[in-house]
Structures are given as structure tokens and as C-alpha cells.
UniProtKB/TrEMBL annotation:
Protein known as: DYW domain-containing protein
Organism, scientific name: Cannabis sativa (Hemp)
Annotated InterPro entries: DYW_dom, E_motif, PPR_At4g14850-like_plant, PPR_rpt, TPR-like_helical_dom_sf
GO-annotated molecular function: RNA binding; zinc ion binding
Family label: Belongs to the PPR family. PCMP-H subfamily.
An example Gene Ontology biological process: RNA modification
The gene coding this protein: LOC115707700
Amino acid sequence: MLRVTADEHSYNYKHTSDLLLSLTRSRSLPKGLQLHAQIIKLGLQTIPLISHNLINFYSKTQFPIYSCHVFNESPYKSATTWSSVIASLAQNELPSHAIQFFRKMLENGVYPDDHIIPSATKSCAILGRCDIGESVHGLVVKSGFEFDVFVGSSMVDMYAKCGEIKYARKVFDEMPEKNVVSWSGMISGYVLLGDDEEALRLFKQALVENLDVNDFTFSSVVRVCGNSTLLELGRQIHGLCFKTSYDSSSFVGSSLVSLYSRCGVIECAFRVFNEITAKNLGLWNAMLIACAQHAQPDKAFELFGEMRSAGIKPNFISFLCLLYACSHSGLVEKGKYYFEMMKEYGIEPGAQHYASMVDLLGRAGKLEEAVSMVKGMPIKPTESILGALLTGCRIHGNAELAAFVDHKISELGGNVGSGLLVLLSNAYAAAGKWDEAAKARKMLRDQGLKKETGLSWIEDGNKVHTFASGDRTHLRTEEIYKKLDELGDEMERAGYVADTSFVLKRVDGEEKNETIRYHSERLAIAFGLITFPHERPIRIMKNLRVCGDCHTAIKFMSKCSGRVIIVRDNNRFHRFENGVCTCRDYW
């Protein structure tokens, strides 16, 4: 326990200030509260330096309301004091309060300095209030801080997170001096926007200029490689992380786990995870979702138990990972168990949790239970929830339930995304309701929407080869089709029979067979077979769900060719080996 003498005169503000700084570094709240009581007793709270350090202490110990109390009781409010309280609120996820204090500061005639502005811009970014951010930018120019590297970096980050990438780039380009924060903020902005190509280009430029990148930069760029499934480039950047020792960072680690998981190399994801000693919640969640996507629900449940034993409190994402794992493995009771467990942690289920539960029940054939959940939940059904219902309709050919969802879409004014209308059309078609399917497709056209084109791609070195269904644009088209036809004959001799019921169009049988034979994933696999050595697994990425017939066909492809084929569709990973898929035909 902290020992404080009763002799008031033995204290001076310098010693007290130093002691406060020490307690701030150690995050010792009980001792800090005791010292605060002694400060009040001695009347030292009126000294600006003491007030500043007290506000900072409560900020670091995550008690921003106490920071506000200290600020309000301080008779002398300098720019430093204002900066401390605004930073306390911004850093502790109270951005609205931070903006309120920023406005009060201006009303009191205190002009912002280079320490206050980054806290204000951070709050604008969290709130997505670019309008307020533009006003702050105006103050920056007036105060002459537009060329300050820290202020400029905060402006870049604010505009990028608010989706105003052009403004972010303008500020970035006009900065006479750039540091790792400004480069990282700009790269991250392109990642958030989905402009992976520009993010990678900027990262390469930073390396050319010998920038000392940090863990945030590496995390952003690794995330780009994961989003674009650029395994080879991701491995090269992982090598740079290793050389700079950033591979031990949980922040970078979670991105690396995601990269290897998205590229189908789950064993590398586990290796990265196991090598990091200080695991944060983001890293645990990344590994949980990796297990869920790779059909390893038992491993996900085991990791969740280890996470809780390590004292890591799960959040809403953790439970979303678990529900996803249950949904894609048909584990209904386990799903219900984890859905109820959320209450123990004070987490209210959101739309994504309900969508996962509805998906779980629908896939398992418990359609009535799924509908009851939708009717009884405290939120209005979202597109993801209705889409989950339609997945159950399609799998089980339930036209009545499709009509129920159709009515719900009408209640939304029909103003929904193309994906949901395509699901509705497919659900009707799977139930043989062709007229209703046609109406759903008409709704798609009437809204000026288009069905997303199914694409599959495969990486060869640093080059990505992309295929569409029936694609004949590739330089090796003749070889690809020849290989596919040869393999098709071998598959038929092994017992494969095309299931043309998965062609959800009213066309004759021969056309259906021709359509399904040259789906994009089969073309990509054929390219892999003629390009890669036998011992190398063939990794295919697809933007849509693999159809049932292609799933069966790829099992035969793996058996007849003796190759390991890994396919990632928009739902999960499928690892085909010797005629068997890890999803156990449940996806």
C-alpha cells in the first residue's frame, strides 16, 4: 500500500506530479485514488500540472468521467488541461463528449494546439462526422498547423475513415514531411475502401523511400493480401514482418492468421497463432473464424475454452464465430448453447447473430423454428436474416417459406440488394415455382440491378488467373478444355453423373449439362492441373457459393487426379482429397 505521511509540508507539487506519472505508467487505480484524496487534502488540485496529470491518470486507467470531474474542478484551464480531457474522452471511446468539450474550449476562447487537434479528428473519425472534421481542418489551416506532421497524419486518418479518400490523399500529398503514421493511415484508408491495388502500390513506395513501417502498416498490407488471396505476396510480407520482429505483434498476427486462413493454409494460421505469446482478443477471434471457415468446429470450441481460461472476455464477434461454426456443421444444440451464453457476458444478440441462428436452423431443416425466431426477435428482419431463411428454402425446396420471405421483402418496399433477390429467385426455382422465380428476376431488372457474375481465380506466383463460366479468353483455353474433357470422361467411368437440377433455368437437358460442365471453378481447377506439380495443392477462390453438382464433381476430380483441391467460396473452405470433402457435404 502507498504510504503517505501526514505532514502536509513534506509534499510539494513536483514530487506529487512525479508520483502521479509513476502510477499512471503502472495503471495502479487504488493507489492513484488514495493519492488523489491526499492531493485534495493538501489543496494541490488547483495547480495546472497536477490537474493535467490527474486527468491523464484517469484516462489511462479508463475512468474518463473522473477526468471530467478533475477538469471541472480545476480553476485554471489552460490549453494543456483542455487537451488532456479531450484526449481522455477520445481515447476511451466517448467521441461525442470529446467533440462537446472541443466546442466548449473554442467558446472559451482557447485556440487548439497540435496536441488537441488529433484527439478531435480521431473523434470525428469514430463518429463518421466528416462535416465536423472539415471544420476542424479549417481551424488547422487558420492556426498554421497544416504542415505539422502529427496534425496532418491525423487529418489523413480522419478523412480516410470517413470514406473521403480523395481528401485524405490531397492532405497526404501536400504534407512536406510524412511519418509512419501518415503512410499507415493512407494505406489503411485504401484498404477500408477496398482499393487493394493502390494500397499495395503505396506500401511499395514507402519501402522504396526506406520508411520504417510499423505494426499497423504491416497489418493493413497483410489484410490486403488476405482480401485478395495473394498468398505468395503475403508470405513475402510475412518475411519482412519476421525481419523487423513485428510478427510477434498480436495486431499483425491477427492479420497473418486471416491471410493464411483465407488462402486455405490453415496449418500456417495455427503456426502464427501459437508462436505469439501475448494474444489479444482480435487474435483469438481471427483464429476462431479460421477454424469455423475450415470446418473445424471442435477446434473452435476448444480455443474458445482456452481463451476464457486465459482471462480474455469474449465479445460479440467471438460468439458470431462460434455460431458460424455451428451453422456450417449442423450443430443445432451447440448453437443454441452459445446463443444463450451471450447473456452471461451482457451481450445483446445483433442482426448477425440472429442471421447465424436462422441459418443454422434453416440448414438443419428446422424451418418452422427458424420462422418462429424471426417473428419473435426484438429487431426487424434484415437482408442477412431473410437471406438465411431463403438458404433454408433453397436447400429443402420449401415454396411456402419462400413466399413468406417474398412478403417480408415487400414490407421493406422491395428496396433490397441484388443478392437477396437472386436468393429468392433460386429458392422458388429449387421448389419448381418457375413463374415466381421469373417475377423475382424481374424485380432485379426493374431496380436496375444485376446478378453478380460467378468468378473463380487461382494464383500462380504473383499472377492471378480469373475465370467465368464457359470462359474462353485465357491464353491456355485449348489445353484447359482438353484437360477438363479428359478428366470428365474419367470421372464418368468412376461413377460421376451430372446433377442438372442445380441449373436453375428452364432450358433443355443438353444445354443444362453443357452449362454445368464448364463452371468457373472447374476451369480454374483444370488450369491448376496442367500448371502445378503433382505434390502442390490446387487452391481456388470463388466469389459465389459452389453449386451442389460442382461440389460432387470436384470430389471426383480429386479422386481421379490424386490431387488435393482446396476451394474457398463465399461461405467456407472445402478441402477435397481422395474423393472426400472436409465439409462432409454440409454447406
